[in-house]
Amino acid sequence: MTQIVIDKVRHMYRPARGRPVLALEDVSLEVGEQEFVALLGPSGCGKSTLLYLMGGFLPIESGTISVNGKAITGPGPDRGIVFQHFALFPWKTVLQNVLYGLERQNMPRDEREARARKFIDLVGLHGFEDNYPSQLSGGMKQRAAIARTLAVDPGILLMDEPFGALDAQTRALMQSELLGIWRASPKTVIFVTHDVQEAVYLAQRVVVMSARPGRVKAIIDTNFDKTAPDLLRSQKFGDMVDHIWGLVKEEAIKAQMGRAT
Amino acid sequence: MAGMSPTMAFVDGRPRLRIRFRDIAARWGAVVALLALWWALSHSGMFTPFMLPTPERVATRMWDDALAGDLPLNVALTLYRALAGFVIAAVLGVLIGAAMSRGGIIGWFFDPIVSVGFPMPKIAFLPVIVLWLGFYDVSKISMVVFDAIFPVITGTMLGIKSVEKELIWSARSLGTGESEIWPRIVLPAAMPQMFTGLQVSLPIAMIVAVVAEMLMGGYGMGGAMVQASRMADSPGVFAGIVEIAVVGWFLVKGMASLRRRLLAWHPEADTPSGV
Predict the structure, then answer these.
(1) Which of A51, A104, A159 is best to mutate for the B interface (most B CBs within 10 A)?
(2) A15 CA to chain B: closest CA distance, Å?
(3) Domain spanning B50-270, CATH architecture
(4) Which residues between 42 and 61 in chain A have a beta carbon less than 8 angstroms from any beta carbon of chain B?
(5) Element (H, E) at A205
(6) Whether residue A124 is found in the same domain as residue A160
(7) Which terminus of chain A faces fewer neighbouring Cβ atoms within 10 Å, N or C?
(8) In B, which residues are within 8 Å of A55 by CB distance?
(9) Which one of A96, A120, A153 terminates a domain?
(10) What pLDDT, in 10s, does the model give residues A227-240?
């Protein structure tokens, strides 16, 4: 069932100084319920902007985005967000961070405490409930941020290059854990990345976006069996990554040329 | 982790003690060295007792003043003026800084006032303030507010402006209403820089209170020093310097320990800082 409908969205980026830039041009996309979709493209193609529009953080000036048939007008707990740089509340401990969203709902105290601890355990942060974010590594911070977002049980998970600031080993680990969490309790996931391998590994569909102004260049079905032990070295996986990398590379070159002139 | 901590404490219990001792020694070393230098110079015969009275002499003088009741009265009056001015400056400074951080007309209005007012020697306005507000506490406290407010304004403004939008967006998507964003997210996030503004402002309040007292006379630590100087009472002048140093030290350390307590989550809270 279709859950998110993006219809002819156009977005101008207006910096405080300087000329406005057309960031997104005529973007249309449909995402099904419990589907895992990756938005892939060179930097500056507007993929994060599209995610922020879905989150309701930026005003939609032209076109519509609707969730479950209703046009979105602002942020809401039905769409959880995970940022590249975590955006944890630094003055709150891990537990307090995860509790924050639950306190905004009218959940009884015992229930929300139990729920927060459940999600802290789920992301593997048991024992760090009382640590402040500044006392955690990057990977642990992102685990805490994911727990905070999952705890309020959003139907849709918006992820903005969530593993982009992590080292390679941590990233690989977090990818497989995210996939595990998603398989255990599927949600609609929109995952922004510029890492082709990450996109193919995680997503059921990969949306390749063009260089600025961002458009949907291609949509590739990547929904094949990914449970094979040697998946990353398999012929099928490699071919898929090569094919998508070819598409992204064209746009990356265009983006470079655009910047040079 | 909780199960591990007793072992950890046992393992590094000794080194931690040794580091503690060395830290304390280093912190007091400078004070001891300064006192020793003062003692040596005042006993060397290079200076007359009038130019540089001995530390013993000054200490005796402070003891006498304390018994006579002058010392507590002067310290209390100066502290009252400095702290009253500081509290007013803190409240007004946070309000103005917060209003300025939102930009718009208020931002445009206050921006030139802060840019011109901050570097200006406010004490130069003292004669005008005396004309308007008289010789007593109102004018001294106004002088303190006038000087101590600027670091609070800039600290608050910068602190609020540098709150990341992702933090606010996260809060919004977790169900925070528009009216809750300031008290729940913006103010706590801006707290470290706001507090730095307050930590700069408090010693300024102390300095201005003493200087205003020196210029205007009367009771208070500054007034007592000027009085002593007029009477050619050299131990009295030096006693004043020592008293101001001690009171200032307590104020600065008190603020630093308040910061460690309030901002335990902030990585910089651990660093032993004067300001």
Answers:
(1) A104
(2) 15
(3) Orthogonal Bundle (1.10)
(4) 52, 55-57
(5) strand A205-209
(6) no
(7) C
(8) 169, 173
(9) A153
(10) 778 888 888 899 99
